[in-house]
Amino acid sequence: MPTSARAFRPDDPARTQGLDAAGLQALAAAAVAAQDPRNRRGPFRPEKLVTSRTRQAERLSSFYFRGIDAAALIGLTLAIGWMSGAALMTLPFAAVLPLGIALAVSLAGLRIMRLYGFGRGERLDLHLIRVAAAMGLGGLIGSAAAVLTGQSAQLSALLEWGLAATLLTGVLHAVWWGIVNQWRAEGRLTPSVAIVGATKHAERLIADALRRRDINVLGIFDDRLARSPDAVVGVPVLGDLDALIGHRLTPYLDHIVVAVDPSARARVSQITQRLAALPNAVSLVVDQEGEAARDVSLARLAKSPLASIDGARDPDKAAFAKRLQDLIIGGLMLVGLAPLLALIALGIKLDSPGPVFFRQRRHGFNNEEIRVWKFRSMRHEAADATAARQVTADDDRITRFGKFLRKTSLDELPQLFNVIQGEMSLVGPRPHAIGMKTGETESARLVAEYAHRHRMKPGMTGWAAINGSRGPLHSAGDVKRRVQLDIDYIERQSFWLDLWIILVTAPVLLGDRSSVR
Question: What is the pTM of this model?
C-alpha cells in the first residue's frame, strides 16, 4: 500500500481514536500533503543532511592526513637513527644526508602520486601499491645518494627505514582510506546542489547524476513556477526563487545550478541577479550533447571528495591555513585567558541573577544557523535573542557589570568556544543575530550584497570592527558600509592581515569611545 494511503484511513481506530473533528481534519490534511510530490525527499536526499561547512571541514582532512604522515615518517627516521647507536643530530652531515633525502623524496612521492585524493571507487590494494612505490622511490634515491657520497655503511639503515616506512605509511593510508569511504557512504563528502529551472536541461543533469551518484540534487526551484511540474525525475520542485532565497536547505547546498537555456540571456541575467542575495556558489550548466561531455561537466561540479594538496594557492588551502590558525591561536588564548574567564563569570553571578552565559542564534557560513556564546550582559528577563531592539546608549536592559563587559568587549570572549568547534573563526565578518533589524526593516533586506558576508565563517573580530563599524546598525548606510568592509576583507584575507587585525583589535576597541556596544 502506498505511504500516502497509509497516512490516513478513517476506519483505522489506532489513528482516529480520541480525535475530535478538528483533529480528524488535521490528520486528513496531513494525508493530502503527503501525496504532494513537493513534500517528497527525492531520490538523492540522505537520511541526515550535512551542512556545507561540515563538508568543507572534512574535505580539508587531506591536509591533516599528509601532516600525520610527515610526522610519523620523521619520528620513524629519528627512531632508526637512535637505534643505530647514535643520535642523528650528532652524526656528520654526509652520514645523515642519505636518510634525509629518502625521507624528503618519499613525502614528495606521496604528494606527486596524488595519494591524498582518495577518489571514488579507488581500490585499497592499488592505493597501497602506489604508497609502496613512493616509499621505494625514496629508499632507492637515498641509497644512490649514500653510494655517491661514500656512505655505503648507511645502506643497511636505509633498507630498514624503507621497509618500516612502507609498513607504517601503508597502515596509515589504510586507515585514511577507511575513514574517507565511511564518510562517502554516509554522504558527508558528496556535494549537494539545488537546480534552478525545471527544464529539459535539469532532467538530463538529474538523470546523469543518478547514474554517477557523485552529487546530490536536493530540490528544484523555478522562476516560472506556474508552468513547472511537481517533480523532475523524482526530484521535487520546492518553489520559486523567493522560496529558494529563504529556504532551510541553503546552508546544506554547495552549489546552486542554473539549468536554464543560456540563449535566454535576459532570463539567465535576472535569475543570477536574484541569486546574488545568497552566499552559495552559483554555476550555469550548459547542456551538452553526449554522455561523455556531460560527465565532464558533472565531474567539475562534484570535484574530488578531498581537497587537493597540489598546485597553486586555492580556497581549500586558504581555508585549511585559516583553520589551523584558529585552532593554534584560539586554543592558546582559551588556556591563557581561563583565569580571566572565571573572574568574569564570578562577577556576573554577583551582579545579577541568571545564567553566566547567553547564547544567541546567528548566521554563520553559508547562512548556517549557529548559536554564539557570550557572557550575559543584560538582565536575564530582558534578554533579546533576535536583536529585534538594538542596543542604545544607557540601555535599561544592561546590567552594571554588563556595561563594563560590553565597553571592553569582554562579553565576546566565550566565542572562543565557537572558534574551537569550527563554527566561527578568530577573524571574519561579525555574525549578526538572525532577524536583526535596522529601524523597522530586517538588516539583510537593506543591501543586495548582504549575504556575501556569509561566504566565510564569521569572526570574533574583523576588518569592519577595527574600522569603526561595530555594534548596532541604525541606517541603511551603516549596513552598506559594514557589508562593503566585510567583502573587502573576504577578498583580501591572508594570514598576515588576520594577525594584524588580532593585534590591533584590543587597542582599537578600547580606544573607541563613540560606538555603542
Answer: 0.74
- AA letter at 184: R
What is the largest distance, in Å, between two alpha-carbon atoms of the chain?
Answer: 96
The candidate with the shortest Cα–Cα distance to 103, out of 71, 138, 131, is 138
How far apart, in whole angstroms, are the C-alpha atoms of residue 151 and residue 102?
Answer: 14
Residue length, the chain?
Answer: 517
Residue for grid cell 536575564 = 380
Task: Quickly tell me which residue has 585552532 as its cell.
Answer: 327
Task: Encode 352-375: b = buried (16+ Cβ within 10 Å), e = exposed.
Answer: bebeeebbbebbbbbbbebebbbb
Q: Which of 465, 464, 358, 463 is nearest to 413 (CA)?
A: 358
b/e string for 111-131 if b means 16 or more Cβ within 10 A? Answer: eeeebbbbebeeeeeebbebb
pLDDT digits (tens, 9 = 90+) for 32-69: 444 444 446 778 777 788 888 888 888 889 999 999 99
Indicate the pLDDT class of residue 89, thresholds 50, 70 and 90. low
Q: Which helix H or strand E contains 220, and what residues bound it?
A: strand 216-221
Mean pLDDT of 20-30: 52
What are the φ and ψ backbone dihedral angles of 409, each rounded to 5 degrees?
65, 15
